[in-house]
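Ticket #4471: structure export looks truncated?
Reporter: QA, pipeline team
Priority: medium

Steps to reproduce: submit the single chain below to the structure queue and open the exported record.
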Amino acid sequence: MTTDVDRPRPVRPSVPLSDRVFRGVVRAAGGTVLLIMGAIGIFLAYQAIPTLREFGWGFFTEASFVPDREELGIAAVGLFTLQVAGVAIVIAFPLALATALYISEYAPARLKRTLIAALDLMAAIPSVVYGLFGFVFLTPHIIYLSRWLSKYLGFLPFFEVNTDVNAASWEQSMYTSSPFIAGFVVAMMILPFAASIMREVFAQAPLGEREGALALGSTRWGVIRSVVLPFGKGGIIGGTMLALGRALGETIAVVMILAPVFDIRFRVLENGGVTISSLIALRFGEATPSQLSALLAAGLMLFLFTLVVNTVASMIVARSRSGSATEI
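Actual output as written to the record:
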């Protein structure tokens, strides 16, 4: 006599049509983004071949960019690009961190919504507006800060200025249109991006660990120091690097402030300078085919550098959301 044995019924899950369509659309969108990025990189690399073939490594070591004398190099513009971005990060990082901590940990609910909206609004302001604000309003005031820095910290190479800082009648023109002023303006532009990323990561700090720290007698600052900051460490680094990528490629505001000078120097308070993006904007319209190749070669270097910076930053931000770095 045979008996029926209970057997598990096979389950054949079927994905709904709407899910399959959504998955296909998302994959197509992601693939399209990768194709566009790859096409841009291939185009820049192809257009840069004549310049790299003619000048070789000298293109990266030559300071001047004088097409009429066939002197083409990006050493000076690369250095000024790093100077402007470095000044911007030094100014924006502490402000972005303090803003993000205040919004996520201290601000009342009503004020928090207002501050978040203000950050979003700052990110939406066109760069030309920042450039006008920096040129018309900030420059006449920041030159006094620049003179103070050169007077009392001039022993540092990057705060030195080739003028008599103790003179009764000081040369104000030596401090205008400097990488320091350009970096100050760029700092205002990248601050909302860095602060928004940091705030979002801080808001994801585990509520249970926050309450546990408070139950053990920790103060609000103690919770921030032992829970929020360790959890958001990756977000702080990632947000800063994403802001750095934005600072490296900023164009219009820098063009409006910097006076073009092709010289290898480390004095950020002194008049003059030019970044890679501003060089392309200034010379693109009147460039000959050979000069256009040189500009696109400079653009390729900027593209690769910002791509690496943004990729690493995105990886750090994504990794920080696991909360594995949280300690009490």
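Status: closed, not a bug. The export was complete when the record was re-opened. Leaving a note from the reviewer for reference: The two ends are 66 Å apart (CA to CA).
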